[in-house]
Design goal:
By secondary structure, the protein is an alpha+beta fold. The chain contains 14 helices and 13 strands.
Length: 475
């Protein structure tokens, strides 16, 4: 029976592979496909795996472009200041913000973390907010462009810092309720469920039906490669009605592309709410640091309108050439190589990964199409994501939709680099709000379409579960 289940899962994996031109042909046998080798991102892969592993340029980037990468890194890493300032290239901060530098959230270009209980600000975690449509005339436009209806006073994102003489919008506090999950081998894992609270509101009460969603900053590696995937390859993996009967019904989000004034598929963000890297970056400058740009010429500001207007200025604060340099930097942050690929436990863990059905969403292998950075084009990569939305069940639901994404749907996050999280970021907090304190906790939170895989992992004998974790930590 075990071999029948394995063959069925392999057949589904092969069928999904054949649907997309991103994958090479799958062997028509019951043998497991070979795991990816060291080069998770083809010729762009770097082999340094220390604390700087997520901050390096693509290995095959032409030497003459390294200066552009360094300049972009400077604008990403160094703090921005309020205007007017002698630092004219890096001014325009605020009036309300979550941080004053990109690197403060994406620490060492890696993963953010939630605040510890008792901390008075979130730093590398932000809180998105919205309300349900009310029938107002503006609802349709907000849904089309923002994917949500802004909270009437505070907008789409809470800013917990402010420039001098202004009050922050509020403070984010997180508390946790712990509960046990028992494994088949008798082990017990304590999961923690977060509860958000917004205190010290600076501009009046929140709407009584405010929907809130905590989001930690994701790693920055490999984004230019994901941007280079052919949309047709992504759409080929959609199965919203589960026609193949595997219990997986992924679908692409459809979001607003501000530069083209058109709806396209989403790729970036926890719910695939952003279509391109330039828009993702401009949105972060705007929402996280209060910096305007050509794509986002206004900032949310519930303070005195005259004060907000005076601080905002007239011209976009993020100059086009500076955004281009930040976009170049973020598109070319390299993925580090896999480790321990010949370790027997790691190889066994790959088979467990496939047997449990994890590859149905965490698609191992793709091939990039054309990129504006030619060295990223036509690379065979192993990001372990399908970039699609999946219903992850009520346990992980935030109750807040985003464009087509429901309150329980999330984009499959890439797994490449996940085994270096502690080395780079100094912690092992996972999932969209950082509730999981290690990889096993993250797996045990999977529900909905991933419930069968979660159950399979929960029932594993100890050595196979450890092998699975060894494989994930090799990525």
């Amino acid at each position: 029976m075990k071999e029948v289940r394995r063959s069925h899962r392999l057949a589904i994996w092969c069928r999904r592979a054949i649907m997309s031109t991103a994958l090479s042909a799958c062997a028509a046998t019951a043998a497991m496909p070979e795991p990816p080798g060291e080069l998770l991102s083809g010729a762009t892969t770097v082999r340094i795996t220390n604390s700087s592993a997520f901050s390096l340029p693509a290995a095959n980037m032409p030497l003459q472009r390294r200066l552009d990468f360094s300049v972009g890194n400077s604008f990403f890493r160094n703090p921005w200041v309020t205007a007017p300032s002698s630092t004219t290239a890096r001014d325009g901060l605020g009036p309300l913000l979550n941080t004053n530098a990109c690197q403060n959230c994406h620490i060492k270009d890696g993963r953010g973390h939630p605040p510890e209980p008792g901390q008075i600000n979130a730093v590398s975690m932000l809180v998105r907010m919205s309300i349900a449509p009310s029938g107002a005339a503006s609802d349709a436009e907000n849904l089309r462009v923002h994917g949500n209806i802004p909270e009437p006073t505070y907008g789409l994102q809470l800013q917990d810092f402010a420039v001098a003489d202004l009050a922050p919008e509020g403070r984010v506090e997180v508390s946790y309720r712990e509960f046990p999950v028992t494994l088949a081998d008798g082990g017990m894992v304590m999961l923690r469920e977060p509860t958000l609270a917004i205190t010290n509101l600076g501009y009046g009460p929140l709407h009584p039906q405010t929907e809130m969603s905590a989001r930690v900053a994701p790693p920055m590696i490999g984004l230019g490669l994901l941007a280079a995937l052919d949309p047709a390859d992504i759409l080929a993996r959609e199965d919203p009605d589960d026609h193949d009967g595997d219990g997986i019904s992924g679908r692409a989000n459809r979001v607003w592309d501000a530069s083209g004034a058109i709806t396209v598929i989403g790729r970036f963000g926890w719910k695939a709410g952003q279509p391109t890297l330039p828009q993702q970056n401009a949105a972060a400058f705007n929402g996280d640091m209060g910096i305007t740009s050509f794509l986002f010429p206004h900032t949310e500001c519930p303070a005195d309108p005259a004060v907000c207007l005076a601080l905002a200025g007239g011209e976009p604060e993020l100059e086009a050439q500076i955004q281009e340099q930040v976009d170049f930097y973020s598109a070319n942050l390299a993925v580090p190589a896999r480790r321990n690929i010949n370790d027997p436990a790691v190889r066994e863990g790959w088979q467990v990964f496939l047997d449990a059905g994890c590859a149905a969403c965490h698609t191992p292998t793709w091939k990039t199409g054309l990129s504006p950075h030619e060295w990223l084009s036509h690379q065979t990569i192993h990001p372990f994501t399908d970039l699609l939305l999946h219903d992850m069940g009520p346990g992980l639901a935030d109750g807040r939709g985003e464009f087509l994404a429901s309150g329980s749907e999330w984009r499959t996050p890439p797994l490449w680099g996940i085994g270096l999280t502690e080395v780079v970021s100094g912690h092992t907090f996972f999932l969209h709000d950082g509730r999981a304190r290690n990889l096993l906790e993250a797996i045990l939170w999977h529900g909905g379409e991933a419930a069968a895989s979660q159950k399979a992992v929960r029932q594993l004998p100890t050595h196979k579960r450890e092998a699975l974790l060894a494989f994930l930590n090799s990525l």
